């Protein structure tokens, strides 16, 4: 998979301030503020930084946590996982493999067969509704 590498200045120009804060500074939007949290249409969720397909609407579920939540990425290789011990917690950070943008965290309390909950920032994603 080809990497997308931009300078900090290029990311600042390409992204909105909120997208930049989440994707490039590993920020977290406030719960229930992201516009994709309640998105229920069929379609694909792509990286707001580079457009890579990350999650399918079929994997989205209402976790009640206030952020878009998925049981699994569309392709396992599309996301990369890293240990994150910031804020006094041990969590698994999820980043876009293509552009290294911070997406959110994955927790072991999901409903699917994998038992995972990919808790993503809405600002890190863009929604591409299915056309029919
Ligand atoms: Zn990306």
What do these coordinates show?
This protein is α+β, with helices and mostly antiparallel strands. It has a single domain (8-129), classed as Beta Complex (Metal Binding Protein, Guanine Nucleotide Exchange Factor, Chain A), CATH 2.170.150.20. The protein is built from 2 helices and 9 strands. The strands form 2 sheets. It has a 6-stranded antiparallel β-sheet. It starts with 7 loop residues before the first helix and ends with a strand. The mean pLDDT is 96. The site of zinc ion has 8 residues, from loops. Residues 47, 49-50, 52, 96, 98-99, 101 line the site of zinc ion.
CATH class: Mainly Beta
Present as ligands are: zinc ion
Low-confidence stretches: none
- DSSP summary: helix tally: 2
How far from one another are the termini?
A: 29 Å
Strand content: 25-35%
Query: What's the main sheet like?
Result: 6 strands, antiparallel
Brief summary of the model shown:
The protein is an alpha+beta fold. The protein is built from two helices and nine strands, in the order ααβββββββββ.
